[in-house]
Structure formats: structure tokens, C-alpha cells
Write a structure and sequence with these properties.
Elements lengths: L1 H15 L5 E3 L2 E7 L2 E6 L1 E3 L2 E3 L8 E5 L11 E3 L6 E2 L21 E2 L12 E3 L6 E2 L10 E4 L4 H9 L4 E2 L9 E7 L7 E7 L5 E7 L10 E3 L2 E5 L6 E2 L21 H9 L19 H12 L21 H9 L19 H15 L25 H10 L18 H15 L9 E7 L12 H6 L2 E6 L6 H10 L3 H4 L11 H4 L6 H8 L5 E5 L2 H8 L14 H9 L4 H4 L4 E6 L1 H8 L7 H23 L6 E7 L15 H4 E7 L16 H9 L25
Helix pairs in contact: 3-8, 4-5, 6-7, 15-18, 17-18
């Protein structure tokens, strides 16, 4: 019976899935970010599903839900870099006799190959990290796994029969394969694969590729650049460094990290593919070229040279013209720039101070003479004293040892990169992106009706809102679990209220709520849950270290009082993440009053708005609203004028999402928002990458610029 219900839910979910697609030659795919695509429609040629399609600049890494459901295919061509097979992707393909799963696959979701009755045998690669319920018809299909792999653990925990594919194999003959392709910021994996049984040995990490940045561009006063590999846009310097290819740069040297910084951010190149030449001198032309890259100079306005000795066709001409026009550099009394002259330290400080002024950076000017601290400080030329004093005071330039400043010494490439990194660290310091606090309000049964209610507090707190969509066939506990875990019910496993008390990990390996994810990433942070529903508290308490005080169902005003009263929780605690779950809208406004949309129901929405306002005002009173993000989400609605919910009408499926706080882009495009997306937004707010099992979509324009975590 349980499986029948699950199959029904899966089929209903597949029918409800309406992807946003780009179609070409019989296939359709969705851009899911980071230059990756999900295949949503497949072309079938000679009874073979051609999943290894050309998606243009994108790489197909996922196969969508219901991709080939109940098809007559007898073969599948998988994408080379496939990582995820969606819900019921090949469910009911009864002519499918064999498949060879790629060794890049991590996730095989619920019912992916269910009811494939002709499928005699399948081998689960060791790369698989999650198998959904009834991903295969265990028993009808012979399942082969590897000793101590996730597949074996899954079969043991669920009582499924299996065969060890590697039992008795000597693994004598092997071949090199890539089991996980690296991305710009995430490493991959390579291994030796046994030709006979498929066992993986010598699994070694492949380092991340690093971003391939374009030059900075400035628009509307904001500087940004994109990565040609992942397609993402960045506004800050990258501090996760690429591996250096240079053989002449010692990792223990005083300048090594500075070379990493400048090389990663495309400010400097090597003198060859393997050489950086750290001790080589730097010309004046080289300096302005570096600064033009730092600033994102638009050379279109600087085609004419203003110096006599700079030819228009020279490689450095645009940068020199830009620097001269903006008073970053000056020529001599003959109108010459002297591009090939090696720059010395005092000249460099003048250029850097002019550049700081051009960039609009602010810095203190206390009038102190720092040059006297060096035995040769007075050797600084009069025209450079102010700039050298400025550079020393800020730590951009330091002594060379033995109490000497060496103002007229030539600046080598190692000194240049060191000074550039100091400069960036002072004026554009590294930012850990995220919020100090996130407060999430989760409201049971409010659907999209908040839009019609009198909600002055919600209007004040949340600058951006949209109609969201229930992530699965509507069920209170199931939908709230989807919000908390960023997955569908067929993954997190909570279909009914009775399921909520069971251990979320025993059968749902790696499914964790956003509270648990934050606690795992930041053990020192306090994470709190105040829920009116006992099952929500039970779900959260299982994750350890999460404050979930409610041990029985409570009403919303009690929850609010526990938080805001004198001597209450918020006066004694400052949680980094607070979940507040309220349910009186459904309990009072529907079950005991006039039903969805009635006057009593709308009154209850107004009361809930008041409770939200009290909590917000308490944060304001305690001085905690700076760098705090507020999120509001409802789980489902119901039939207007009645008390029923759980169907597929618009009023039942529609939900409400709202967000407010510093740097939230109130013009962000939230088209297609579903409740599981809340999970990813909460993790983004803490600078945490979503686990791969998450179904949350990314909304790249939601935050204009995430603030600095304190």
C-alpha cells in the first residue's frame, strides 16, 4: 500500500512538473546555473534515448523528472558528465534490458528506474551518494554494489537483496577515469577503474580549475567581471587562489601569496608558461597595465596617446593613455612617459596614491612623519615624501630590513605584487559573504492569502514578495519538511504527520534541514527553532545542538511571548538562525472558523502579522536589525470558502514567499519560485553551498551584494 501511494505521488509530481526549457532538435533543457543544464525532453532514435545532447555552451549534468516515463526505449545514451537522474526519469520503461551508469553519477532519485521489469541487472557505481526509494525494482532486478560503498549500506538498511560486484576480483587490469569533473571552485576526482568488475582504486582529488576572469567592467558606478568558465558574475576580488604554474616561485617565500592573488585575479601573468621571474624589475608601463586591470579601465575613451614616447600601437599604449588622462601618472618636463624605465619604490608610491584617489578610496591623514623611523627615510625625494609617508602609514610599503626604506631602490615583480595585494586588502578587504542573522517565519495554511489581508508589519519588513508554489502534493507536514530540507517528499520521506517523529537520517541519508546545515557549518553559532507544531520541533531536535524548546503543540501567541517577553529568549540569546513556525491561521481560521478566505480567516492572518511585527520590533529594540535577513514562507493554501486542502487547485497549491533585509534586490526575478527554494536562500545567506541532493534553484540577482559577516 505504501508503495502504491508513493507511485501515485511520484506520477502526480511528474505530471505537475512544467520546466522552463530551450528546445533544439527534439530535445529540451533548462539552464540550472554554473554553465550546467538539466535535460527535460529527450529525443528517441531507434528506441534509444539520446540523453548525451549538445546543449550549446552548457553541460548536461542532470536528467529531469519523468524524462522518459513509460517509454518503449530499449537503450540509453547517458551524458558524459551526468551527476543526477531525476524522479521517475525512466520509470515504466519495460523494454529496457540493460544500462551502464556513468561513474560520475551521484544522485539516483526515487522511482528513477522503477517498473523497468526487463532490466535484469544493474551495477551501482561507488560514486553514487544517494538512492531514492524504489530507484530500482529491488528483487526483480539484480543489484550489484561494492563492498563498504553507499550502495551496499543502502541495501542493508532497507533490506534489499544485493550482490558484491567486486567479490573475488583481483583488479589486475585497470583504466584511468574521471569520476568527478572539477569546476572553477570545487575539486574533482580521478581514479583507476577495474576493467573486470568496475571497482575504483587510487581515488585522487583533482584540484579546482579556478575562475577564468574577464577584465573588470564598470557600469552605473559598479565594477564587475564574469568568469568565462562558469558564467557567474563577481564584484569582489577572488581570495580562493588558483594553483600557480610557476616553477620559480617558492611556496615559503614572502611574496608567494601575493603572486597567487594577482595571478588568480588576472592582474599579472608569468614571463612564460612556467616562470614568474619574481626578482625581475618592473617597468612603468607594466605598472599602469596592472592598475588598468585592477580598475577595469575602459580603453575606448583613450585611443590617443598624450605622451611623446608612447606609440599608439604599443601594447601598453591604451593603459598609459588611461593612466595619464586620469592623473595617475605624469610625464617628465619633455612630455615623455618613459614606459620602459624600471620603476623605483618612491615613484611607485606616488603612482599608487594617485590611483587610490582616482578610485575614490578614503584613508586617514594624520600628518605624522613615518619616514623618520627609517635610517634612510630622508633620502626620499621631496616630490615623493607625501606619497611615501602615506604608503608607509597604511602598510602598503614596508622597510626592506635593517631599518632601511630604500626609497630609490628598484621595485621587482615580487615587490609589485606584494604592494598590490596590500593595497587590495586595505581598500577592498576580503569579505565573507553572508548575514549575521537570519529569521525565518513559516506559516501553516496561509497560502497566498496574505496578499489580500491587512498586513502592515509584513509590508514594512519584507520589500520583495511573490506567489510561491507547493513543492509536492499538498500536505502540511510534508510541505514544511520540503521547505526545511530543500527536497521533495519523495526524498525527505515525510508524507503524513505520523512520519514526523521518526529519525530523518535512518532512511534518508544526507537529508538535513537548513538549521542542521548551518549548525554543521558553524558549530559555534546558536541555531534556534520555536515551532507551534510538535512534529517540526521533533524533526529539528534530531539534528543535535539545535535549540527547539516546544515539547507539545503551542499556539502562536505563546511562541511569540516566549521570544519577546521581558527576560525571554531573545533578551538572553542572540541566535544566528531562528525558525519561527506558526499554525493558528490553519487551526483557528480554517478548522474552527469560517474556512479559507473567510472574514475570520483574514482576521487570523492579521493577528499573525501582529506576532511577526512583535518579533521584528524586539530585534529592533535590541539593536539587531542591521545585517539581519528576514524570510517569510507559507506551506500551502486551501479551497476558498471551504476547509479542504490537499488537492491541485490554484488556491491549494499557491503559497507566499517574502524576503527583506540589507542588500535584498527588490527587483529580483523570482519567476517559478517553489517552496524548496527557501532552503537554498537560507544557506546562501550564510555563505554555505547547497548539498547536491537539494532541489533549490539559484536566484543570482536576489542579493545586490551580500554583506560582510562580522
Amino acid at each position: 500500500m505504501k508503495r502504491f501511494i508513493s507511485v501515485f505521488l511520484a506520477t502526480l509530481m511528474i505530471i505537475m512538473t512544467v520546466p522552463v526549457i530551450n528546445a533544439e532538435q527534439g530535445s529540451a533543457y533548462t539552464d540550472i546555473g554554473d554553465m550546467r543544464a538539466r535535460l527535460d525532453k529527450v529525443e528517441i532514435v531507434d528506441s534509444v534515448a539520446k540523453c548525451n545532447v549538445d546543449a550549446g555552451d552548457l553541460t548536461v549534468t542532470e536528467l529531469g523528472s519523468g524524462l522518459c516515463t513509460y517509454s518503449s526505449i530499449n537503450g540509453i545514451e547517458f551524458p558524459e558528465k551526468l551527476e543526477r537522474i531525476g524522479y521517475g526519469a525512466f520509470m515504466g520503461c519495460s523494454n529496457l534490458e540493460s544500462i551502464e551508469l556513468p561513474y560520475t553519477v551521484k544522485i539516483i532519485e526515487t522511482f528513477a528506474f522503477s517498473e523497468c521489469y526487463s532490466l535484469k541487472s544493474v551495477t551501482i557505481p561507488e560514486t553514487v551518494e544517494h538512492l531514492g526509494e524504489w530507484a530500482f525494482d529491488f528483487g526483480d532486478t539484480e543489484v550489484k554494489v561494492y563492498k563498504n560503498s553507499y550502495g551496499e549500506k543502502y541495501c542493508i538498511e532497507n533490506g534489499y537483496p544485493y550482490i558484491l560486484a567486486d567479490e573475488g576480483c583481483s583488479h589486475k587490469d585497470t583504466e584511468d577515469i574521471i569520476t568527478e569533473y572539477p569546476t572553477c571552485m570545487c575539486g574533482g576526482e580521478q581514479a583507476l577503474k577495474c576493467i573486470a568488475c568496475g571497482k575504483l582504486t587510487q581515488r585522487n582529488t583533482i584540484k579546482a580549475n579556478g575562475h577564468s576572469f574577464s577584465v573588470w567592467e564598470t557600469a552605473n558606478g559598479k565594477r564587475s567581471r564574469s568568469c568565462e568558465e562558469c558564467g557567474n558574475t563577481f564584484t569582489d576580488f577572488e581570495r580562493k587562489y588558483n594553483e600557480l604554474p610557476f616553477t620559480d616561485t617558492d611556496k615559503n617565500s614572502w611574496y608567494y601569496e601575493s603572486v597567487e592573488f594577482c595571478y588568480t585575479n588576472s592582474l599579472v601573468n608569468g614571463t612564460s608558461d612556467t616562470s614568474f621571474a619574481p626578482a625581475a624589475n618592473t617597468t612603468r608601463a607594466m605598472v599602469v597595465q596592472i592598475l588598468s586591470k585592477y580598475a577595469g579601465a575602459d580603453f575606448g575613451k583613450y585611443s590617443e596617446s598624450i605622451f611623446k614616447d608612447v606609440e599608439t600601437g604599443a601594447w601598453y599604449a591604451p593603459a598609459v593613455s588611461w593612466a595619464g588622462a586620469n592623473k595617475i601618472v605624469n610625464g617628465n618636463d619633455k612630455g615623455e612617459f618613459m614606459p620602459n624605465v624600471n620603476v623605483n619604490r618612491e615613484q611607485l608610491t606616488v603612482i599608487m596614491k594617485n590611483f587610490a584617489d582616482f578610485m575614490g578610496y578614503e584613508y586617514p591623514e594624520d600628518g605624522m612623519d613615518f619616514l623618520k623611523e627609517f635610517t634612510d627615510g630622508n633620502d626620499t625625494s621631496e616630490w615623493a615624501r607625501d606619497a611615501m609617508n602615506w604608503a608607509v602609514s597604511l602598510g602598503i610599503v614596508n622597510g626592506v630590513g635593517a631599518g632601511k626604506l630604500d626609497p630609490k631602490g628598484l621595485a621587482g615583480r615580487n615587490q609589485i605584487v606584494k604592494i598590490i595585494k596590500y593595497f587590495a586588502d586595505i581598500f577592498e578587504p576580503e569579505t565573507v559573504l553572508g548575514y549575521d542573522r537570519v529569521v525565518v517565519f513559516m506559516i501553516d495554511g496561509a497560502g497566498d492569502f496574505f496578499k489580500d489581508a491587512n498586513t502592515p508589519n509584513i509590508n514594512k519588513i519584507f520589500g520583495l514578495s511573490t506567489t510561491s508554489r507547493a513543492a509536492s502534493p499538498v500536505n502540511c507536514v510534508s510541505e514544511r519538511a520540503s521547505i526545511l530540507t530543500g527536497t521533495n517528499a519523495l526524498v525527505h520521506g515525510f508524507y503524513h504527520r505520523d512520519d514526523a517523529a521518526r529519525n530523518v537520517y535512518s532512511e534518508r541519508d544526507s537529508v538535513k534541514t537548513f538549521l542542521g546545515q548551518v549548525k554543521e557549518a558553524y558549530p559555534e553559532k546558536e541555531v534556534a527553532c520555536f515551532a507551534s507544531s510538535l512534529e517540526i520541533s521533533q524533526m529539528v531536535e534530531e539534528e543535535g545542538g539545535v535549540y527547539a524548546p516546544v515539547d507539545e503543540n503551542s499556539v502562536d501567541n505563546e511562541i511569540t511571548d516566549m521570544l519577546v517577553c521581558e527576560g525571554g529568549y531573545l533578551e538572553n540569546n542572540d541566535p544566528s538562525l531562528l525558525l519561527v513556525e506558526m499554525r493558528q491561521v490553519l487551526q483557528g481560521g480554517v478548522h474552527f472558523e469560517g474556512g479559507f478566505g473567510s472574514s475570520d480567516y483574514m482576521t487570523q492572518l492579521g493577528l499573525t502579522d501582529g506576532y511577526i511585527g512583535k518579533i521584528y520590533n524586539k530585534y529592533e529594540e535590541l539593536g539587531r536589525n542591521e545585517n539581519t535577513l528576514y524570510i517569510l514562507v507559507t506551506d500551502h493554501g486551501g479551497v476558498r470558502g471551504g476547509t479542504s486542502y490537499g488537492g491541485t487547485s490554484e488556491d491549494e497549491l499557491n503559497s507566499f514567499f517574502a524576503i527583506g533585509g540589507e542588500n535584498v534586490n527588490e527587483n529580483a526575478d523570482l519567476t517559478g519560485f517553489v517552496n524548496t527554494d527557501v532552503y537554498g536562500i537560507v544557506l546562501d545567506a550564510f555563505g554555505i553551498e547547497c548539498p547536491y541532493i537539494s532541489q533549490s534553484k539559484k536566484y543570482g540577482d536576489l542579493f545586490e551584494a551580500l554583506p560582510l559577516v562580522k
